[in-house]
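Q: Here's a chain of 158 amino acids. Please give me its 3D structure as tokens.
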Amino acid sequence: MADVRSVSLTATEIEGFLGDGGTGVLAVARDDEPYAFPVSYGFDADDGEFYLRLGYDDDSAKAAFVDEPCPAQLVVYEEATDGDGSLDIKSVVATGDLVRIPKDELTPEDVERLGKARTPEFEVWEQAKADIEFTVNKLVPESITGRRNVSERADSSV
């Protein structure tokens, strides 16, 4: 039987887990009301910032919550089964300010970092893409923490 405990990830493990980009859940709040939604991100380990492209349609609840700059948390997680059948769960939480990058201030580096975000191969909006307003944003973390589960085999020689 294995005991499971949670341990912190090192900065190197966090960077490796986040890679250049991936998917996660971005959480923001207005007053005491939270709002969370799935996002794709590009990540630059050199500056520790996340790059996001957010889409807004006419009925977007997101627009009411994303008052930029605004405090936000990005949660990236993964669940997998190890070769021995143990469940391996990793997560990283980045907390900081979400800021919009105006289109006329985008640099080639910003575009490159944003390009590392995973783009879904399907449409998630009911409206035509031409009717969606897209913004480029970055999350400037004040903190990035990571955890993972570790299985410890019980000593059966007792």
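Q: Can you summarize the key feature?
A: Residues 2-152 form a domain with the Pnp Oxidase; Chain A fold (CATH 2.30.110.10).
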